[in-house]
Each structure stands twice: as structure tokens, then as C-alpha cells.
Amino acid sequence: MYPSAVSELEALLTVAHAGSISKAARELGTNQQTMSARIARAEKALGITVFERSPYGVSPTEKGQMLIDALPDLLAACHRFSGIAASLRSDNVPRHLTLAVSNTVAELYYPGWAAEFHRQHPTVKLSMVQANSREVRQLVADSAVDFGLVEGEAGRHDLEERIIGTDELVLAVPTGHPWSERAAVHNAISIEELRATPLVIREPGSGSRKVVEDALGTLTEPAGEFGSLSAQRAGMIALASPTIIARGAIRDQVTLGRIVIVPTDTVFTRNLSVVMRRGSEASGDISEFIRIASPILSKHEQSQ
């Protein structure tokens, strides 16, 4: 809906983040003249000078900064509205939506999201590819899928990521492990102990592995490396070694008394995000999937 006005507002936000009109133009895959025209039209329509220009780039005016701070929420609402409107216009037309999903998201969250999406939009066929977070981002960048869902942070200049929720990792051990006694008395495991202890951990390139390494720094040689949550959980039990794993992946085993969550001196959390190619616009179906995923994710978090 109203693509011209939305593109002008997106131009304001991109220029504010980039610090220059030419850099923002490169990020959006357009030329500097077009970007300057968008900024000028936006300022004229708003009746406010958003940016101060100088030979060194641009910076927001005081009033401009207030507008820029409000833009992310406004743009997100615009995209949601456009997605809903598009789906209502054409939901009786068979369509195909392809996505790549990181391993953690695939095991813990995607089945619920996909089921609800299918219930609301039965004519849309979902095709999902499962990979680690790094590979998902590459699939999106290569246009092999329409969008991706990952955990953890990213820094690729050719992709845009929007956070739709958070996920918590916890330190867990099999019942009977020496650390399980420390859980009973709330004796937290220190960062130094974790660094020095061989852990059962996810494979390099996974979002989970990056969260652990960012929090702890250099780790000792792992007790084992595994490519999925289920394999990581089984490896922890088989090797009788500690692991740092998504809380949702062990909830049932904790309830059954087979696994114990041990307190730590640090918190392991990561964002769950939707990934798209920079400059691309979310289709109605993508916007609908994100709309459905966000509240389901919130309910899942509350149940933990």
C-alpha cells in the first residue's frame, strides 16, 4: 500500500543509519540522485528539515531525529498492513512460499508457525529448507529462497534482519553429573569454569555456537560438536558432559528428571530474526507468516 510514500520514509531511515546519501543509495541499490529526490519529497511532505547537509555527510536535525526514532514502528506497521491487504485480495489464488530455517528454529518453533499459517492460508504451499544460521543467510543472499528465519546476530551488508523474538540458552547436565548438585544449592558455574570445561556444543556456523563463544570467549576443546538440537541433547547424555542448549529443547527431559539445568554467572540469549535481501520488499505472504510467528513465539516464551 502507498509504495511511494513508504519508500521515501525508508529512504529517511536508511540515510540516517548510513550517515550519507551516497552510502544509503548504494545500500538500497539505487543512485544518489534518486535517493536525494526521495529525501527532498519526504521533507516537503512532512514540512520538516530532517537532515543537515555538510561536505562530510548528513546528520539529523533535532526534529528530524524525533521522526527517525518513530520510523521503525511506523514502517513495520505499514508492511504488516500491506501484507494483510494483499493476502485478503488474493488468498483464493494458489501460491508457493519458500523459506530457509535455522536448525534451532526448525526444531522448536517452525512446526507451530507452519501449522497456524496453513490453517489461515490453506492455498499457500510452504517449502522449507533446514540449515545452520550461516547457511540460511547465504541461501537468502543467493535468492534460493524467499526469506529466512535464524537465531543469533548477523552483520552482512547485503541482508536485512528484523527481530521477531528472543530465545534463551541454558547450561544443562545429565542427572548425576557433579554439577547437578550445585543446581540444588543454587551454586552458579562461573565463566572461567565454563571456558575450561569440555562442553557438548553445536557446530561452527550455528547461531547457538556464536552465542556461547560471544559470551565466554575462547573455549577449551569441546567434548563433542553436533549439528542439531536433538543430537546435541543425546550427545550430552551419552558423553555425560555439560552442554549449553536452548531451554525449549530439554523441557520435557527436565520434567522427567533426566536432565538438570544448572545456574551460571552469565546469561545466554539470542534474537530470533527474519532475514531478507536488502532492498527487497516483503510480500503479503511473508508479512503474514511473520505476523503469525511473533505472537506464537511470545506464547512459547511465556510457557517456559
What does this structure look like?
There is one protein chain. This protein is an alpha/beta fold and 304 residues long. Helices cover 51% and strands 23% of the residues. The chain has 13 helices and eleven strands. The chain has helices at residues 3-18, 21-27, 32-46, 62-90, 103-108, 110-120, 133-141, 178-184, 191-196, 207-216, 229-239, 247-255, 284-303, and strands spanning 51-54, 57-60, 95-102, 124-131, 147-151, 159-174, 200-202, 224-226, 243-246, 259-262, 268-277. Strands 3, 4, 5, 6, 9, 10 and 11 form a seven-stranded mixed beta sheet that branches. Strands 1-2 form a two-stranded antiparallel ribbon. A two-stranded parallel ribbon has the order 7-8. Helix 1 (3-18) packs across helix 2, helix 2 packs across helix 3 and helix 6 (110-120) crosses helix 13 (284-303). The longest helix has 29 residues, at 62-90. It is globular.
**Poorly predicted segments:** 296-304
Largest sheet: 7 strands, mixed
Helix percentage range: 40-55%
Overall geometry comes to globular
Helix/strand class: alpha/beta
Number of strands: 11
Radius of gyration: 23 Å
Order of helices and strands: HHHEEHEHHEHEEHHEHEHEHEEH
End-to-end C-alpha gap = 38 Å
Strand composition percent: 15-25%
The whole-number mean of residue pLDDT values reads 86
Count of DSSP-assigned helices: 13
